[in-house]
Design goal:
41% of the residues lie in helices and 14% in strands. The chain is of the alpha+beta class. The strands form four sheets. It has a three-stranded antiparallel β-sheet with strand order 1-2-3, with no helix packed on it. A hairpin with a 2-residue loop joins strand 2 (69-74) and strand 3 (77-81). Helix 4 (85-106) packs antiparallel against helix 5 and helix 5 packs antiparallel against helix 7.
């Protein structure tokens, strides 16, 4: 709207050049469209999702904050880092430590055992990072949230985030955001587990327990040293 007002060439009418021209009716052109229609379309364009300054629009920089979750844009992908990032570092160190210890022990038993140790360590590391950096399902503010409560009474509004919560959505006091399909807050992942990273979380649990089982079976199957 501001850019429209600053550009006279886009106005559907012309202002008088001088007092003499103002007396001539030909100095003015008729309105091409109704002025209220033009103003309404300009306001709708400003309120469009993703427009600069629109409510709930994501930041256009390389990083921004959603509550206490830091979103970093890198290589065309968004990485969500939660407030308990230090717990994620401890989990990462644990995975690398167990994997390195097993691989160093399996190297003396042959290439097959070493390849198995590297495989389970790599799969555990990839599945962990995929879940730790995934979007948990942060509910962002939408301009339509202000009209939804009057239309759908089965929705509730978060008094902290000022967003309309659909069914299954819950506010996390650690992350300071509302999470769609909130399951629980996992400090080892650094943030909540919700609708968008629940599958990645269960994938990590499956791979991690399978890797630990493989390491235990491999360690118990080794012959005792004489």
């Amino acid at each position: 709207l501001c850019s429209w007002l600053k550009c006279p060439t886009r106005w559907p009418f012309r202002m008088p050049v001088d007092s003499e021209a103002s007396e001539d009716h030909t100095a003015y052109s008729h309105f091409d469209v109704d002025s209220s229609t033009v103003l309404r379309e300009a306001a709708d364009e400003c309120r469009a999702p993703g427009a600069l300054g629109a409510p709930g629009a994501p930041a256009t920089g390389r990083s921004y904050w959603l509550g206490r979750i830091w979103v970093c844009q890198l290589a065309g992908r968004e990485f969500y880092i939660g407030p308990h990032w230090y717990c994620s570092i401890l989990m990462l160190v644990f995975i690398l430590g167990v994997g390195t210890f097993h691989c160093s022990s399996a190297a003396a038993l042959g290439s097959f055992q070493l390849a198995g140790g590297l495989a389970v360590t790599g799969l555990s590391l990839i599945s962990f990072l995929n879940c730790a950096f995934a979007d948990p399902g942060v509910l962002q503010k939408n301009p339509e949230d202000q009209v939804l409560p009057s239309l759908e009474t089965n929705h509730r509004t978060c008094q902290i985030c000022q967003v309309v919560q659909p069914r299954g959505c819950q506010h996390c006091h650690f992350c300071q955001v509302c999470i769609l399909g909130h399951d629980h807050h996992c400090p080892w992942m650094g943030k909540c587990i919700g609708r968008k990273n629940l599958c990645a979380f269960y994938t990590f649990l499956t791979v991690a327990f399978a890797s630990l089982g493989y390491i235990m079976i491999s360690a118990l199957s080794q012959p005792p040293e004489s």
